[in-house]
């Protein structure tokens, strides 16, 4: 299996700081590369993290506040400059169509990028193939905002000893796995008789939002939940008034969703240390980290 990892390009909310760039997250998943919320400076952060524009296959924009999208203009121009030959799908709130167009056409450049705009108008599956899918749910923020879930579809692990005992081999194994059953020596053998379920890996991406059921739904049983935690508990009223989460609330979402790992990010510029975020989240969801720019999080079971 190829490496599956989240490369953290930026962790700052609203404005960059001396230590933190605007948001930006690159999910490397086998042959797919999904860039989430490229804020200002993303192109440079990609260079520092050794992420090439040619690796990008999809771009996901949760909403059109600047810290989540101002880097899109540069990324699109980089796709042209680096002569990226494959199509790149861009998912974003349909209500922000004019902002997408403004960013796409922000300055003069020779545009050869093969872009496929995919404005979001409804929750559900945005893209899928036989193995993977990208889905979305509306979050609760001051503007239209969508969360994303990238997931590997559940499969099964074939049990070699049971297959051998029944004399099933070669192409018969593939046929049984594809069709769900196989007739052998006058007997119908079900896939469940010779396999065990294997849950697919997944990553949930929940940015600017207040507490809501959609965030929990996106994070359900996720291998990794990447979640905004703009504030600490002492600023909970401010968080609620602005449609944001505290570290405690992010941890509660992870706990209620039974997410395996919680990744805290999108920190207000008022905080210079991440220790307080961990102290608040850990008692609720112990498998938690507060990421810094340049961190790499491996996607594991």
Q: Would you spell out the secondary-structure blueprint of this structure?
A:
Elements: E1 4-10, E2 24-29, E3 32-36, H1 42-48, E4 58-60, H2 72-81, E5 88-93, H3 97-104, E6 115-120, E7 124-128, E8 132-138, E9 146-152, E10 155-158, H4 160-165, H5 171-179, E11 181-184, E12 187-190, E13 195-198, E14 202-206, H6 213-219, E15 224-228, H7 236-242, H8 247-257, E16 261-265, H9 275-281, E17 288-290, E18 296-298
Parallel strand pairs: 3-4, 4-5, 5-6, 14-15, 15-16, 16-17
Antiparallel strand pairs: 1-2, 1-18, 2-3, 7-8, 8-9, 9-14, 10-13, 11-12
Helix pairs in contact: 6-8, 8-9
Task: Give a structural overview.
The protein folds into two domains: 251 residues, 4-Layer Sandwich (Metallo-beta-lactamase, Chain A), CATH 3.60.15; 40 residues, no CATH class. The strands form four sheets. It has a seven-stranded mixed sheet. Strands 7-8-9-14-15-16-17 form a seven-stranded mixed sheet. A two-stranded antiparallel ribbon has the order 10-13. The mean pLDDT is 94. By secondary structure, it is α/β, with parallel strands linked by helices. The longest helix is centred in the last third of the chain and has 11 residues. Helix 6 packs across helix 8.
Strand content range: 25-35%
Q: Helicity level, as a percent range?
A: 10-25%
Succession of helices and strands: EEEHEHEHEEEEEHHEEEEHEHHEHEE
Mean pLDDT: 94
Q: Note the gap between the termini.
A: 13 Å
CATH superfamily of the largest domain: Ribonuclease Z/Hydroxyacylglutathione hydrolase-like
State the oligomer: single chain
Across the major sheet, the strand order is 6-5-4-3-2-1-18
Radius of gyration: 21 Å
Number of domains: 2
| Structural class by secondary-structure content | alpha/beta
Uncertain stretches:
none
Shape: globular
* Number of helices in the DSSP assignment: 9
- Going by CATH, the architecture of the largest domain would be 4-Layer Sandwich
């Amino acid at each position: 299996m190829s490496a599956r990892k989240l490369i953290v390009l930026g962790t700052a909310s609203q404005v960059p700081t001396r230590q933190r760039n605007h948001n930006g997250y690159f999910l490397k998943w086998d042959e797919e590369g999904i860039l989430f919320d490229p804020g200002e400076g993303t192109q440079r952060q990609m260079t520092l993290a050794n992420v090439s524009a040619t690796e990008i296959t999809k771009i996901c924009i949760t909403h059109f506040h600047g810290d989540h999208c101002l880097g899109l203009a540069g990324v699109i121009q980089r796709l042209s400059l680096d002569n990226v030959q494959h199509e790149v799908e861009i998912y974003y709130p349909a209500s922000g169509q004019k902002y997408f167009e403004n960013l796409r056409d922000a300055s003069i450049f020779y545009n050869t990028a093969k872009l496929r705009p995919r404005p979001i108008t409804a929750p559900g599956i945005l893209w899928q193939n036989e193995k993977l899918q990208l889905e979305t749910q509306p979050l609760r923020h001051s503007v239209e905002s969508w969360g994303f879930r990238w997931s590997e579809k559940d499969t099964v692990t074939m049990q070699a000893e049971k297959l051998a005992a029944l004399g099933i081999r070669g192409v018969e194994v593939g046929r049984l796995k594809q069709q769900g059953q196989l007739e052998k020596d006058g007997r119908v053998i079900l896939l469940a008789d010779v396999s065990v379920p294997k849950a697919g890996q997944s990553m949930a991406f929940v940015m600017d939002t207040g507490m809501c059921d959609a965030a929990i739904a996106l994070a359900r049983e996720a291998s990794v939940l990447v979640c905004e935690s703009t504030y600490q508990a002492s600023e909970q009223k401010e968080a609620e008034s602005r449609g944001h989460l505290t570290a405690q609330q992010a941890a509660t979402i992870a706990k209620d969703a039974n997410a395996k790992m919680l990744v805290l990010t999108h920190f207000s510029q008022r905080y210079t240390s991440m220790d307080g975020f961990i102290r608040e989240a850990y008692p609720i969801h112990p498998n938690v980290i507060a990421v810094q720019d340049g961190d790499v999080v491996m996607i594991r079971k």
